[in-house]
Amino acid sequence: MKEIAIIGGGVAGLTAAVYALRAGAKVTLYEQYGLGGLTATIDKIENYPSYKSVSGWQLSQDMANQAKALGLVVVRQKVTSLTSDGNAFVVTTDKSTSSFPAVVVAVG
Question: Fewer CB within 10 Å, N or C, the chain?
Fold first, then answer.
């Protein structure tokens, strides 16, 4: 099974997570704060497919719930560095270090 790390839990990170999970990857998403990013702070969104009108918070929650239902693993830690050891990408947070063959950086 392919493993992917995603750095950033906003709309772009959550969207990447859903696509990767649907493709059969094991996805670990790193987000220091809450899921949804700045979108979660918007009062009203009227230009998102399948919603006539939705709050940013609700849209963010719907996306996070969909990704979690598909198996998303969320790590609520601050990523302090991303390096490569030649064989894998090394994600270092303020509390741990992990290696992944692929990383998506979606930090807005």
Answer: N
Angle of helix 56-69 relative to helix 11-22, nearest 10 degrees? Answer: 30
Give the model's confidence band at 96: pLDDT under 50 very low, under 70 low, under 90 confident, else very high: very high
Q: Is 6 helix (H, G, I), strand (E, B) or coil?
A: strand
Q: Are 42 and 25 in contact (CB under 8 A)?
A: no
pLDDT digits (tens, 9 = 90+) for 74-88: 999 999 999 999 999
Burial 10-48 (b: 16+ CB within 10 A, else e): bbbbbbbbbebbeeebebbbbbeeebbbebbeeeebeee
Q: How far is it, in rounded angstroms, from Cα 72 to Cα 1?
A: 14
Task: Find out whether 89 and 7 touch, Cβ atoms under 8 Å.
Answer: no
Residue partners of 102: CB distance under 8 A and separation at least 6: 2, 3, 4, 5, 89
Distance between CA 60 and CA 9 in Å, rounded?
10
DSSP 51: -
